């Protein structure tokens, strides 16, 4: 089957978004990735990247197609406006690309290790698949932000899928803010009610799907003969590198300590060291392809020396840092 993925990112997250794309190239045999470019610079660079499997879409096109969505922009932060896009994007793409029978939304900081075909088997004939956070008991309080993680969904072109997406769109247009209230948080907490609203919603039980810094410790990790690591007897499909970023040359903030845990060194090096090296590889490809452009190592191009220093101190305090210097280089905790 041909997979149709979608994601969104701006110029600052271009390296991250293209690292996701390159992981799909290695793991998925036949696909297209629709990328909503959140600024014109990102759109231009994606166009010039020139791969038919990567289809950029201007944010302005989505706004023209959905004026109610566009009208939200002045009253929302940049992040909140992106959250509001979550239901709008698949609805737009289903209408723009009538040949798409399914759409698979991906956050830009996911990285694929294998074909997600097992999740389509879980979906079966149903209309939507969502992934639970699967917090350990010590982090169960984080369910106040949502039982399900909005980073990964599969949508099938059915009336029931459209009904739930339109309901979610209305909810996000009415209220989508980066704060917790009893029944809502950003775009994510609205998903809590989906399984009770429709029997056509599948909840993934796959141990290798949407693994991240908040749930890796609930899984039984084993190293395979080929050097890969797999959780609880299942293949690792994709990992969510939430909060993972370079602070400066060689210093990667993996964000694991923010969840109060320490990952065993060999597993951390396979996951975070491997991801960091792939991210650096993508950046190097971009710098060669666009020699007149700048692709800062730190995601925020305008970071000052003091803010970087403060980030390093915070990372050390929370045990969030590791060395990561590039392809073939060793990694270690700081």
Automatic annotation (TrEMBL):
Gene Ontology molecular-function annotations: transferase activity
Keywords: Transferase
InterPro entries documented for this protein: Nucleotide-diphossugar_trans (IPR029044)
Full protein name: Lipopolysaccharide biosynthesis glycosyltransferase
Organism: Victivallis vadensis
